[in-house]
């Protein structure tokens, strides 16, 4: 049975935290295609003082309709104070 996107996002956040040992910071995207659900989540790679220097990484998790994690991959990293510019 298909799950709603909110449930899939929570599942992806939990699975990524468990597998990487990192804390989820924010969800930055969710799209669906023929492969499944692609959920993009920023994870806290390294906590720093001050927190503007924290290192965040964007991970993409691929889930099927039932919420099973099929794969995940780190896509990018940045300092919290930096903003990403899309071309």
Task: Give the count of helical stretches.
Answer: 1
- Ranges where pLDDT stays below 50 over 5 or more residues in a row are none
Main-sheet strand order equals 1-2-3-4
Averaged pLDDT: 88
Morphology: elongated
What portion of residues belong to β-strands?
over 45%
Structural class given helices, strands, pairing? Answer: alpha+beta
How would you describe this structure in keywords?
87 residues; alpha+beta; 4 strands; elongated
3D architecture notes:
The chain has 87 residues and is α+β, with helices and mostly antiparallel strands. It has one domain (5-79). It is 18% helix and 48% strand. It contains one helix and four strands. It has one helix at residues 5-20; strands at residues 23-33, 36-46, 55-63, 69-79. A four-stranded antiparallel sheet has the order 1-2-3-4. β1 and β2 form a beta hairpin. The longest helix is centred in the N-terminal third of the chain and has 16 residues, at 5-20. The chain is elongated, with a radius of gyration of 13 Å.
